[in-house]
Design brief:
mainly alpha; globular; about 220 residues; about 0% strand
Length: about 220
């Protein structure tokens, strides 16, 4: 009788363990399904990504082929390629001179974005359009702004600022991704202007940290 009781107890324990395991499996599957379906449609070029990965990918639509550059070239995994691409954009900062309406547009655009994770300047240019930061990232953003203003003047100031924001996101992926999370929590649109311009500068204070691509 004692032996039978032990056997029955073991059977009951095995059944309970099986039920518990099945329950845990169902919970895990449910969690994975919810996690995989969590995507956010973002404006201005940020495609269906989760809030922790807003890094642009692929070839810039307007100017990528004509300059032979690709967003994917800016990566911590290939610093030499990243530096070459940054230098390619930076060359335009010294080789293109602006005046008149184009200079006014340039000042408006470049006064709206900074390189705060690197040099800490209020913007990448002063109010007169002169360079306010000497880091490679700022040279690249100023160079791209000058190139787009002269070669694609049909682009609006916001469209050009949006492009500068994409490259800044590539330069500081961890910091911008941290900022994206804060913006999302505050129901703010995850456009590259909101992510990278001075519009919400400092909103992620205390959360921005991590890798930087390209040298200061």
């Amino acid at each position: 009788m004692k032996k039978e009781s032990i056997i029955i107890s073991l059977i009951i324990a095995a059944v309970l363990l099986t039920v518990f395991n099945q329950f845990q499996i169902l919970k895990v599957n449910s969690y994975l399904q919810n996690s995989n379906s969590f995507t956010t449609g973002l404006a201005t070029g940020v495609k269906s990504v989760n809030a922790l990965d807003v890094v642009p990918k692929g070839i810039p639509e307007v100017y990528g082929k004509e300059l032979g550059i690709n967003y994917d070239e800016i990566s911590v995994n290939n610093p030499q390629k990243a530096d070459l691409t940054i230098r390619k954009l930076a060359l335009f900062d010294n080789s293109i001179n602006l005046d008149g309406d184009l200079l006014e547009r340039y000042i408006q655009i470049t006064n709206s974005i900074s390189c705060e994770y690197c040099c800490g300047a209020e913007a990448i240019t002063f109010s007169n359009g002169q360079a306010a930061c000497g880091c490679a990232h700022s040279y690249a953003m100023r160079g791209l702004a000058k190139y787009l203003l002269t070669k694609h003047p049909e682009m609006t100031n916001d469209e050009i600022l949006n492009e500068l924001g994409k490259w800044k996101t590539l330069f500081f992926p961890d910091s911008i991704n941290a900022k994206a999370q804060i913006l999302k929590e505050n129901n703010i649109e995850l456009s590259y202007i909101n992510l990278a311009s001075n519009k919400y500068r400092g909103i992620e204070q205390g959360n921005a940290q991590g890798s930087m691509v390209g040298g200061c």
